[in-house]
Amino acid sequence: MDIFLIIIAGVLMLVAFVGCIVPALPGPVLGYAGMWLIHITNRIEFSIRDLLIAGVITIVVILLDYVVPAWCTKKFGGSKKGVWGSILGLIVGLIAPVPLGFLWGPFVGAVVGELIEGKDNMESLKSGMGSFVGFILSTGLKIAVVVAFCVLYCQEVWKAYFA
Q1: pLDDT by residue (tens digit) across 133-159?
Q2: How many other C-beta atoms are found inside a 10 Å radius of the C-beta of residue 22?
Q3: Do 110 and 59 meet the contact criterion of CB atoms below 8 Å apart?
Q4: CA pair distance 15, 18, nearest whole angstrom
Q5: 143 neighbors 20 (Cβ within 8 angstroms)
Q6: What predicted TM-score, i.e. pTM, was given to this entire model?
Q7: What is the pLDDT of residues 26-80, one digit of tens each?
Q8: Contacts by 44-52 with C-beta closer than 8 Å and gap 24+?
Q9: Closest CA to 78 of 118, 124, 138, 112
Q10: Which positions ≥6 away from 92 have C-beta within 8 Å?
Q11: Of 69, 80, 40, residue with least CA distance to 129
Q12: How far apart are CA 72 and CA 127, in angstroms?
């Protein structure tokens, strides 16, 4: 049973990487679930403190994933309509059957929101670029957390079975 749980946890860790890029999959949550799976095996055990810290980090990263793109849009001169446009663009980009819609959707949404606000093309593009930068930052943050979870996974499995 332990081997089965470790394999499932490993699969979750791999899928977590995909979830860092594709917004429909919660990457850090999947990585955290993988940590819990190996924790309940007989040979690997994390401390409760470690699991709580990883849980808090997971929650913070999930919250930042929504805040950072809007914050960057605002920092790049975006208005409320630009911020809302980037959020709506993300939703449309996820639903639309267009390749990489989750990537360009927030950018286009922010630009359209700024154009509706009455800003000129350059200001609108700057706001859209802020949305894109925010997406890249939040994706990088998610990847960093999932890499940390994968490193812990590999270390613990190595210690339990090969050391």
Answers
A1: 998 899 999 999 999 999 999 999 999
A2: 15
A3: no
A4: 5
A5: yes
A6: 0.85
A7: 999 999 999 999 999 999 989 999 999 999 999 999 999 878 888 898 889 888 8
A8: 44/6, 44/156, 44/157, 44/159, 44/160, 46/152, 46/156
A9: 124
A10: 101, 105, 109
A11: 69
A12: 8
